[in-house]
Amino acid sequence: MNRQEKEQVVQVLKASFADSQASFLVNYQGLTVGQLQALRKELRNNGASFKVAKARLMKIAVQDVSGVDFLAPYLKEQVGLVFAKGEAPAVAKVLVDYSREFTALKLVAGGMESQLLTGASITALASLPSRDVLLAMVCGTLKAPIVKLDVVLNMLILRLLFVLKQVAEKKEAN
Fold first, then answer.
1. How far apart are the C-alpha atoms of 9 and 74, rounded to whole Å?
2. Mind listing the pLDDT tens digit for each residue in 64-86?
3. Which of 10, 71, 91, 159 could bridge 48 with an S-S bond, Cβ 3.0-4.6 Å?
4. Where are the domains of the chain?
5. What's the CATH fold of domain 3-128?
């Protein structure tokens, strides 16, 4: 790899860090080519990409991008970068599920909104519901008081009708 190719790899990594919502470091040592291809496909389906480069080039890219420089100490051995362009919890869930299925894949660290994510926090992030589910929960929470008000107002109208019916029955009986 000559100097121009290395600079190009660093530029691609910088652009990927800038464009992604979150990034994860995974140790993929021990995975077969087929397993890595399956992981890449699953990540692509969830709006993420998996990049492999020399650790030294990754360190150079991380130093120049603000908000991810804390990942530099974790860039050693055989690590790959996963860039989540879409929903970070969905990508984290794919990584956690895959690491449970294939123990050779290890979650090293990650970064989201300039915060360091450890392996445990990536697992916690993976347990979050999807964006659609969270929006549905918010809508349900906002809708609940309105529904209760509707029920109370309907009960008042029903009570008024019941009282008027009883008054009408007493007048007919007299």
1. 19
2. 787 788 888 888 888 899 999 88
3. 91
4. 3-128, 129-174
5. Alpha-Beta Plaits (3.30.70)
